[in-house]
Amino acid sequence: MPTPLRMEYTFVAGTGRSTFLRGLAQRRLLARTCPSCEHVYLPAPEFCARCLVELDQPAELDGRGTVSTFCVVSFPFPGQTIDPPYVVAYIQPHGADTRLMHLIREVDIADVHIGMAVEPVWAEGDTLEPSWMSIRHYRPVAEVPHA
C-alpha cells in the first residue's frame, strides 16, 4: 500500500556506548560496572538500567565468552550479506552480565553447541573502525589438552 509518509531517523550511541565503540577500533572490549548493584554491562550505557546510577569507568575484558544460545541461518533473505548456512549466537562474555550477538565461524556448523568457549577474531589494522565490524566473527577457543 503506497503512503506519502516518510520518516528519517538518526541513531545516537550516547556517551557510554560511544566509549565502547571507540574501544572496538582499538581491539578493546570495554565494559562498565554499576557501583550500586555490580551489574557489568558490555556494551555499556551511561546509566544502570536497574538502579539508574551512573556506571563506573570502563574496564577492558579479554573478549572470550561462552555461547549461550545460537541459530543456524539456512535461508537467504533480502539485504543478507553472508551466504547461508551460517551461525549467529548469543555470547556471554566472561566478566560481563550481558550478552552479545555475533557470527560463529571457523567451525563446522554441526559442532557449534551451547556452552562452547569462543573468542573474537578482529579485523585487520587498516579496517578497524568504531563499529561491530571491527570484530569479524567469533571462533571456538582451542582447548588445551590436560597433561
Describe this structure in words.
This protein is mainly beta and 147 residues long. It contains 1 helix and 8 strands, in the order H-E-E-E-E-E-E-E-E. A hairpin with a 6-residue loop joins strand 1 (29-33) and strand 2. The radius of gyration is 18 Å and the shape is globular. The model has no long low-confidence stretch (mean pLDDT 92).
Q: Report, as a whole number of angstroms, the end-to-end distance.
A: 67 Å
- Number of β-strand runs: 8
The side-by-side strand order for the widest beta sheet comes to 6-5-4-7-8
- Please report the number of helical segments: 1
- State the low-pLDDT regions, or none: none
How helical, in percent, are the residues? under 10%
Task: Identify the overall geometry.
Answer: globular
Tell me the major beta sheet: 5 strands, antiparallel
Structural class based on helices, strands and sheet pairing: mainly beta
